[in-house]
Design brief:
The structure holds two protein chains of two kinds. By secondary structure, chain A is an alpha/beta fold. Helix content of chain A is about 35%, strand content about 20%. Chain A has one domain: Rossmann fold (3-Layer(aba) Sandwich), CATH 3.40.50. In chain A, strands 5-4-3-6-7-11-10 form a seven-stranded mixed sheet, sandwiched between helices. Chain B has a single domain, classed as 3-Layer(aba) Sandwich (Rossmann fold). Helix content of chain B is about 35%, strand content about 25%. In chain B, α2 links the parallel β3 and β4. Classes of the chains: A alpha/beta, B alpha/beta. At the A-B interface, α7, α8 and β10 of A face α7 and β10 of B.
Chain lengths: ~260, ~250
């Protein structure tokens, strides 16, 4: 049941890498800041990550071309990037050679990570495992990988985006509630190759608690003044996201 | 009067009217039914656990039916509400049922009860919706002993986003108001003020007041539930597809 979503998402991201993420990776790696989501909201405005990343062991689950990991590595973290899509890891390796920012890359899905228990201080996922891995498998993996007191910080689409997104992948979110909230979990949008996983807030809290996490924050993101409509990931406009959160970041601490 | 005092006075006036129209005549049925329910759709409690012997404070108790049920289950409740008319109704039911416990006339923003003296704080459509959350959560934290629990139910964030402006219109299947907006909400044709927070804002305030978040129960109306005959705001059909009510479960950790 689960392995089919992993294979589908590798196919999806191999295609997305050919279309977009390979070409955009160099610019993303070169960005001096840490940015969240499709509206590129600076971390200084959000405060989701620990203030100092210096010396922290970090695992990024679903790193894609590993631009997010590269930003943390540049700030003194010891990053390991994990992703199941070979094409995106090849892009990441090319950028490592080009920039000299080097860290381990592991080819694996967020559902089954071949890394040792209790070996990280921080687990991050920005539109990675957080959206494309089965939460009932990747959250236990994050809990296993973290040391006691370690933090899990991940960004997902908001529940409101899930409720208002038209069935066809290429259409924008609106204001109509197009699907029920009860039962939300696994989704394959019309015309999409990949499989996404969406949970309601109450279900995220329950899953995190069951895996030994304390809930520290839910940052419901709003674009900065001057933000522009996303072009490739064009599911939402600035106008919509100024009224309702399109993306949200959970912060949890392993007790 | 400060704007906060004016808001509290407006809520007292509104609940005096509501008590005359509905909550006074509805109180006896609720006082006599020992089953504990949460919210408008009669969701049976699964979260309180054994309350026997617990010191409980109910914030925004209204006619104190929830406290009465807890007293019946062996708890020692104190019911706090700012509306004298609703407390009169509670006193009448205390005489009629023999279930006696203290009733305190006060807003949840400023509760004249001692620090660290309760094991459980409850608010079911009380302070949770009509009191300033910055102030009532600080009061709940102060009143609870370390390790004490806070359980409160309010209208869901999503139901609020789908509520048209007029007080008497039911909610719709569409986002009609922004989430990024002030918490304090005033409705046409309704005297008082309500406070509607996003889940992220609730988590931030709860954490700031020393609470650990144990659970958020996004309640689904039971299949047999019907739309509330007086409040009418959330149609039962709507609340079977989307959560109409949120029940937060927290523990005071410091």
């Amino acid at each position: 049941m689960h392995e089919d979503s992993i294979a589908a998402n590798i196919a999806d991201w191999t295609q997305a890498n050919a279309e977009h993420t390979d070409a955009s990776a160099e610019k993303a790696w070169a960005h001096p800041g840490i940015l969240w989501g499709v509206f590129a909201i600076p971390e200084e405005q959000v405060g989701a990550l620990p203030e100092s990343l210096e010396g922290l062991d970090v695992v990024e689950l679903g790193c894609g071309t590993a631009y997010f990991g590269s930003w943390l590595q540049r700030r003194g973290a010891h990053v390991t990037g994990v992703d199941p899509t070979p094409a995106q890891l090849e892009t990441a390796r090319r950028l490592m050679t080009k920039t000299g920012i080097e860290f381990p890359l592991v080819e694996a899905p967020g559902e089954a990570v071949p890394l040792p228990d209790a070996s990280y201080d921080l687990a991050v996922s920005e539109y990675g495992a957080s959206l494309w891995a089965d939460p009932f498998r990747w959250v236990p993996e994050a809990a296993r990988l973290l040391r006691p007191g370690g933090r899990l910080v991940f960004l997902v689409n908001s529940t409101l985006v899930y409720l208002t997104a038209p069935e066809a992948e290429e259409e924008m979110v609106g204001t109509e509630l197009l699907r029920e909230q009860f039962g939300m979990y696994r989704v394959q949008w019309g015309g999409a190759v990949g499989v996404e996983f969406h949970l309601a807030h109450g279900d995220w809290i329950s899953l995190l608690r069951e895996n030994g996490f304390e809930i520290e924050a839910l940052h419901e993101l709003r674009p900065q003044p001057g933000a522009v409509d996303p072009t490739y990931y064009d599911f939402v406009t600035v106008e919509w996201a100024e009224q309702w959160p399109a993306e949200e970041i959970w912060v949890a601490r392993k007790s | 009067m400060s704007s906060a005092d004016e808001r509290i006075a407006a809520n007292v006036a509104q609940w005096t009217k509501t008590n005359r129209e509905f909550t006074d005549r509805d109180a006896e049925r609720k006082w006599r039914d020992p089953q504990i329910y949460w919210g408008e759709f009669g969701t049976r409690d699964e979260w309180l656990g054994d309350v026997a012997g617990l010191d409980v404070v109910e914030l925004g108790a209204g006619t104190a039916y929830f406290s009465a049920k807890l007293a019946r289950a062996g708890a020692r409740p104190v019911a706090v509400d700012p509306t004298p008319a609703q407390l009169d109704t509670a006193r009448r039911l205390q005489r009629e049922t023999g279930l006696e416990f203290p009733l305190v006339e006060a807003p949840a923003e400023h509760v004249p009860l001692p620090d660290s003296s309760f094991d459980l704080a409850i608010s079911e459509y009380g302070a949770s919706l009509w009191a300033d959350p910055e102030r009532w959560l600080a009061e709940a934290a102060r009143l609870l002993r370390p390790g004490g629990r806070l359980l409160f139910l309010t209208m869901s964030t999503l139901a609020h986003l789908c509520t048209p402006d007029a007080d008497d219109e039911p909610i719709v299947n569409r986002l009609v108001r922004p989430q990024f907006a002030p918490w304090e909400t005033h409705w046409e044709g309704y005297g008082g003020a309500e406070f509607h927070l996003s889940h992220g804002d609730w988590i931030r305030l709860l954490r700031r007041n020393g609470f650990a978040i144990d659970a958020l129960h996004e309640l689904q109306a039971p299949s047999e539930a019907t739309t509330h005959p007086y409040y009418l705001v959330i149609p039962a059909d709507w609340a079977r597809k989307w959560p109409g009510e949120d029940l937060w479960e927290c523990t005071r950790t410091r």
